Amino acid sequence: MSNTFKFDLRLVDISFELYAIEEHFELAENEIEKLSKKEKEIAEKILTDEKIEFNSPDWYDVVNQSEQKIHTLIPRFFRNPFLVSLYSIYESGVTEIADKIREKKGIDLLLNDINGPFLDKAKKYYSSILDFNLSINESNWNKIKVLSEIRHAIAHTNGRIDLLRPNAQKKIRKYAEGEFKMNFDAGFLIAEKETSEKLKNAVVDSLKALVQRYKNWDSNHSV
């Protein structure tokens, strides 16, 4: 007698997105490293080929331009879009699972019928309306709240810290002084690699856990 393996296709799109975002992180960081190394080689070649004297004004011009690309431009244009996508995956995943529970319970009120910032209304909706745990890991939940603030700064001001409202600026700078390392070269918010990785892990772990809890619940409530 042969055993038949059945694929569990429930919420498979979320699983695929989590796989893709982890690959995205690795690809982005590898590209940052590769382009930074290339930029350094280009600057060294210019200094050598043009026989630019060390510590001369021209030397500083070449070095400063190279450093700006390596420490500001390259990481900003790879990490910031990654963080926006990361938050979008979390928000859409939470919304999709909420809708499936809502339909199965016969609830009319949608998550998006509730006013307020997404994370606040999502936690309220899951707890009060769906009677379902949105998050069981407080550490990951706090990281996702930090990600939400960073995503807002990137999406609405292109990461320009000085264009944020004073309270938002204060929050971001406080995060940067703690465990979420960021710098603000040229006035732009730029997350360090370790910060991007922490936030990525929080989203992936949280959504994987939520998906599994939903599957367990769905299996127990199937006719």
Structural summary, described in words:
The chain is mainly α and 223 residues long. The chain contains six helices and two strands. The chain has helices spanning 12-49, 57-105, 118-130, 138-157, 166-177, 193-220; strands at residues 182-183, 190-191. Helix 4 packs across helix 5. It is elongated and about 75 Å long. The mean pLDDT is 93.
Give the topology, please.
Elements: H1 12-49, H2 57-105, H3 118-130, H4 138-157, H5 166-177, E1 182-183, E2 190-191, H6 193-220
Antiparallel strand pairs: 1-2
Helix pairs in contact: 1-2, 1-6, 2-3, 2-4, 2-6, 4-5, 4-6
Short descriptors:
223 residues; mainly alpha; 2 strands; elongated
Short précis:
With 223 residues, the protein is mainly alpha-helical. The chain has 6 helices and 2 strands. The chain has helices at residues 12-49, 57-105, 118-130, 138-157, 166-177, 193-220, and strands spanning 182-183, 190-191.
